[in-house]
Amino acid sequence: MKKWFKATGIALVIGALAACGAGNTSGTSETESDVRIGYFPNLDHAAAIVGKEKGYFEDELGERGAEYTHFPNGNDFIEALETGNLDIGYVGPGPAINYFLTGGDIVVLGAAANGATLIVARDGSGIETLEDFGGKSFCTPGNGCTHNVQLEMMLKEIGLESNRVGGTVEHQSRIAPANMVAMFEQGQIDAAAAPEPWGTYLVEELNAHVVAEWDNVFLGETLPSVVVVTSKRFLEENPEAVDAVLRGHQKAVEFTQENTEETLTTINDHLFDLTQNRLPETVLEKAWNRMAVTTETHADALQAWADASYELKFMDKEPNLDGFVDTSRLDAILNE
């Protein structure tokens, strides 16, 4: 197990850090007129991976074509969007919200997946329920990231807080999900708010205990784990290209919903092309059941997550997401 994990630790984890990590980017280039699409090679970016591998985006874009770049984290994705090196793509809600609240040019066109956060505790940690977190430690991929806010909000509701705000629960941030495995193995951390498939990997391979299933996590069933975004400038200047990508997105989502086995094979093959390693099939299958690929966008859940982030003092100002979400173009396509 350690050999598999060590080999994929950096390369495979890039997708798992969609909401809050750090790393490098890579991609391929076609022509200058291509629409530049960004994504993360991870489980809840299934629509992006399927759309790419099945050719749905190219089919809809026609002669214009597509260029793909996979990112290791939301910060790099947002930087590429801000600097004009990316046109449209898939990213976690946290980086998108934070960028919007600082005045960034970004708009959410629709959702790509919900769920995919699992709260797990190390075997022997003494944690069975959330009430056991007092005096214990937990880790997340980033400080104030999607998963961090979800867990800390659940703890706050039962009267517990992290040491970040003077509480008794120790929080270690910026722990790459791949490194969570090593920390669990070595007894260096008690629990984790882990993105999939790493939460399931900890359960299946290291006998971790599930403290909260994905659908019992704060906003677990409604908060998008992945959203499709672009800049308002690109949307205004290239409405037909945006619609083409959204049609490809629709086809990809429908394919994943109707063809689970082939979808998982496509994702694992894509990861193999990048890392020369595959996820264990059991982990992949069980992690798949802890998320939902969907175009259904819950703007109220995005606002609720931002409000929670503010309540937990990750934000200095009360968040207002007016203008952040505009699903009108995707809705029109879905209703065609």
Q: How does this structure look, described?
A:
The structure is a single chain. Helices cover 41% and strands 16% of the residues. It contains 14 helices and twelve strands. The strands form two sheets. Strands 1-3-2-4-11-5-12 form a seven-stranded mixed beta sheet, sandwiched between helices. The model is unreliable at 1-32 (pLDDT under 50).
Helical region count?
Answer: 14
Q: What percentage of residues falls in helices of 4 or more residues?
A: 40-55%
Number of distinct beta strands: 12
**Average pLDDT number:** 89
Order of helices and strands: HEEHHEHEHEEEHEHEHEEHHHHEHH
**Main sheet strand line-up:** 1-3-2-4-11-5-12
Biggest pleated-sheet summary: 7 strands, mixed
**What is the subunit arrangement here?**
single chain
- The poorly predicted ranges are 1-32
The share of residues in extended strands comes to: 15-25%
The structure class reads alpha/beta
The dominant shape is globular
* First-last Cα distance: 48 Å
User: Rg to the nearest angstrom?
Assistant: 19 Å
Signal peptide: 1-18
Protein name: Aliphatic sulfonate ABC transporter substrate-binding protein
Keywords: Cell inner membrane, Cell membrane, Membrane, Signal, Transport
Subcellular location: Cell inner membrane; Periplasm
